[in-house]
Amino acid sequence: MEKFEINGGKKLFGEVEISGSKNAVLPIMAASILAEGKSIIHNVPRLEDVFTMIKILTYLGANVKFDNQTLEIDSSGINKFDAPYEFVKTMRASISFLGPLIAKFKKAEFSLPGGCVIGSRPIDLHIKGLQELGADIKISDGYIVADAENGLKGRYIFLGGNFGSSVLATCNLMCAAVFAQGETIIEFAACEPEVIDLALYLSAMGAKISGIGSPYLKIEGVKTLKSVEWTVIPDRIETGTFILAGAITSGKIKVKKCQPYHLGAFLEKITACGITCEKGKDYIEVSGKSFWQATDIVTLPYPGFPTDLQAQMMAFLCLADGVSVVTEKIFPERFIHVSELNRLGANIILNGATAIIRGVKKFYGAKVMASDLRASAALVLAGLMAEGKTEVSRIYHLRRGYENFEKKLQNLGAEIITGKE
Ligand code: EPZ
Questions:
Q1: What is the DSSP letter of 19?
Q2: Cα separation of 94 and 58, whole Å?
Q3: I need a surface site. Which of 48, 74, 362, 383 has the fewest CB within 10 A?
């Protein structure tokens, strides 16, 4: 297995271009099967999760070409409607096929997604919404067996859960509703930029969706959708990760090809720490400081502070002046990175879904282990600033969501190489 070897203490300077958004492209790839003909999707990042989605599309019978950040998906050959466990266990986002399969083929058989290190990852909201639309859902032998032989009928669906809205449940139900008879209302829909990108993609295909970007979506069922060309939005989580790389190393980085307005809550917080971020139309230039203040973070559904930047922000706060309190409201167990950060010299105490971080002067290089995508990025950020050498093992987690991560960091002056464990 691969590992990163990082010699810390180098300030990062230069420019980095952000790749297309993982969390936008995955539901869009699934939704492309709703179209007749060949869909073309641009700005697609070369990530493990994208390759997994391609494997599932191919397994279902679609024809997929992926060349130079552009995907070509021809779904006319789809003749399977199930997703076996071996696909779903590696990537929860494969659940994004549930809505499109039921909408187009009126059936789907899907392995229940397993849990993961960030939490139990239930899908009760997905199932509830599909049942409201008239799908008959059974759970047997770890599989969801969905049947809608009489088609789906538009309904009012309240999609709020104990943790607020659900991103992929909103994506699934929007897709399920596009061919439903009549009008579907989804109240408490997720408003993440990735959900908006999917809604705009569906609308470009001919879907009738109003309230896009709001928690109140209205979808008027149509008969068919046409295939279109689409360009995926930039990855706001990768953007935040590179801004933190500039800030934690007290360097200066211009993060290009990003959408600054997707990061309001994050930029508010890093500015509160005393870091300067100059925003342009499609770039953010971060100028690091030799010290920064502590701040408190509460993760919330968009436009609140994104849970996917919580671990990376925590690495940054470990070196702040003062005490920071991080409360994880989306995935209360999403703290697997805490013990590894403490191995690097951080001083973090966990109390349920809250972490208390007492700022320390420095990190000390050590061997640490990646455990999930965003926790891995947090460990790399810490390693960039640690005295001496840090080894991050199991970096296959990172390959799922960061394109050319070490190359982009090397181009900014980081001493990071890939080795074999
Ligand atoms: C999406 O996951 C993202 N993944 C996650 O990013 C992100 O952390 C999450 O949204 C929250 O923003 C993709 O888009 C591929 P949720 P999703 O349903 O949709 C609870 C990354 O690192 N819930 O919005 O699966 C759930 O337990 C990944 O890129 C239910 O209770 O997350 C959580 O507490 C990690 N019942 C909350 O809702 C359900 O049926 C939000 O989860 C569904 C979710």
A1: P
A2: 13
A3: 362
315/342 Cα distance (integer angstroms)? 10
Token couple for 306: 């994104």
275-321 confidence digits (pLDDT tens):
999 999 999 999 999 999 999 999 999 999 999 999 999 999 999 99
Query: Any catalytic annotation for residue 171?
Result: no
The domain locations on the chain are 2-15+291-420, 22-231
CATH number of this structure's domain 2-15+291-420, picked from the four choices 3.40.50.300, 3.40.30.10, 3.40.50.410, 3.65.10.10: 3.65.10.10
If one residue of 98, 137, 166 were mutated to test the ligand 1 pocket, choosing by the most ligand atoms within 8 A of its CB, it would be 166
Q: Which of 124, 167, 329, 376 to mutate to test the pocket of ligand 1 (most atoms within 8 A of CB)?
A: 167
Ligand 1 neighbour 23 (Cβ under 6 A): yes
Report the distance separating Cα 351 and Cα 298, nearest Å. Answer: 14
Q: How far apart are CA 239 and CA 408, in angstroms?
A: 12
The reported pLDDT for the residue numbered 114 is: 65
Atom of ligand 1 at shortest range from CA of 120 = 27
Ligand 1 nearest atom to the CA of residue 118, by list position:
35
Does the structure show a pLDDT above 80 at 159? yes
- Please tell me the pTM assigned to this model: 0.97
Give the distance (Å) from ligand 1 centre to CA of residue 54: 21
The per-residue pLDDT for range 108-156, each reduced to its tens digit, is: 998 887 667 788 788 999 999 999 999 999 988 888 999 999 999 999 9
The answer to whether the CB of 94 is under 6 A from ligand 1 is: no
What is the reported pLDDT for 292?
A: 98
Distance CA 312, CA 348 (A): 14
- The 8-class DSSP code of residue 57 comes to H
Please give the pLDDT value at position 103. 96
Query: Which CATH number does the domain 22-231 belong to among 3.60.150.10, 3.40.1570.10, 3.40.1160.10, 3.65.10.10?
Result: 3.65.10.10
Alpha carbons 41 and 36: distance in angstroms, whole number? 15
Note whether 2-15+291-420 and 22-231 share their fold.
Answer: yes
SS3 state of residue 42: strand
